[in-house]
Amino acid sequence: MTASPETVSPGTIPSQAPQVTRRTPLPEIEPEPTGPLAQFLVGTFVAVPLLGLLAAIPLAAIWGLISWPDAVIGLVFYVVSGMGISMGFHRYFTHSSFKANRGLKIALAIAGSLAIEGPVLTWVADHRRHHKYSDKEGDPHSPWRFGNDWKALTKGLGYAHIGWLFNPNRTSQAKFCPDLLADRDVRRISKLFPLWVAVSLLLPALIGGLWTLSLVGALTAFVWASLVRICLLHHVTWSINSVCHTFGNEDFEVRDKSRNVAWLAIPSFGESWHNLHHSDPTCARHGALKGQIDISARVISWAERLGWAYDVRWPDGSRLSGKLTGLRGKQLGSMTDRQLVRPDARKPAPQAATSGDRNAA
Ligand SMILES: [Zn+2]
Ligand SMILES: [Zn+2]
Questions:
Q1: What are the pLDDT digits (tens) for 45-66?
Q2: What is the Cα–Cα distance from 259 to 262, expressed in whole angstroms?
Q3: What is the pLDDT of residues 70-93, one digit of tens each?
Q4: Alpha-carbon distance 57 to 205, whole Å?
Q5: How far does residue 359's CA lie from ligand 1's centre (Å)?
Q6: In the chain, N or C: fewer CB atoms in 10 Å?
Q7: pLDDT tens digit string along 247-288?
């Protein structure tokens, strides 16, 4: 996935010219923009779950409020797909906050795909570009894109939340995630995205139908556990791009507008501690301060105990203390310097070279 070497001094006779070569920098945006079909599909996957949420209200009057099977199926799929985004697409694939064995890597790639937020390669490329240019020109989804006054910011919030999805410029995967392109498992799972979309939409309905042995049970499960669940997760994820770059606390020094937003911490599995994340992007725990609930970090620590995850980048107290803002007596949480507390933690042998060492953007 590298550019072809280009001979310097064009026009000179090769045999007489010094054979100095340089690599042409890869473009950050693909030369071909997205076509109308891709734009239509994005629109469909933004609108249909939202319509499902709106439809659930009158349907609740007919079928009654959400049933136990629908609530259980919806919650399980929300947690699986949401953790796939938070722990998988974001902390593992984008930022290499920890290393994972092959089984966990595949499970995280599939789980994140079930959120229907795009294939893993597209998601990671966009997010690495976001970190490279955070809240500056080149950021694919900054709410500050149009200016600082309230009118520009209102427009920017809409753009950061949903509008950016319709921008025809596609982030170059060769430029931003060559490590993942070199991983055959990741490439295959990314290519199979339409299959994961079908599974995410239809499996809850199938389970609901079998659980209740009725067609109505399948239909209500489709509305609640497929459409409503996907809609909620979409908007929680997109709130990290919009809300968490506009409102909230700057607990740690950053060069952008990323903020910590407490009320989104549980539904986003810890992703809304976005200020710490931009301050220290490879850190596995985003809710690094005492009392900040970070479900993803907890699950990473369980995976570490099981030996599925290793080389976890837990918060480094000395580094983070220097970045704390204000004098409000903030204290770092219990997982700080964990690698020093548990030097004998189980650590399996590193994986084969195919996984590659993934560098944070
Ligand atoms: Zn990130
Ligand atoms: Zn951000």
A1: 999 999 988 888 888 888 778 8
A2: 10
A3: 999 999 999 999 999 999 999 999
A4: 18
A5: 12
A6: N
A7: 999 999 999 999 999 999 999 999 999 999 999 999 999 999
Token digits for 175? 């430029």
Nearest residue to 234 (alpha-carbon basis) of 29, 51, 37, 34: 51
Closest to 56 in 3D by CA, of 46, 41, 45, 66:
66
pTM of the complete model: 0.87
Place of tokens 């000179």: 12
Residue linked to tokens 């989104």: 264
Kindly state the DSSP code that residue 307 receives in the 8-state scheme: T
Q: What is the 34 CA–ligand 2 centroid distance (Å)? A: 23
Ligand 1 centroid to Cα of residue 145, in Å, is: 19
* CA 320–ligand 2 middle distance (angstroms): 18
Looking at 219-354, which runs of residues are DSSP E strands?
A: 309-310
Q: Return the SS3 of 248.
A: coil
Take residue 39 and report the two structure tokens written for it. 């734009």
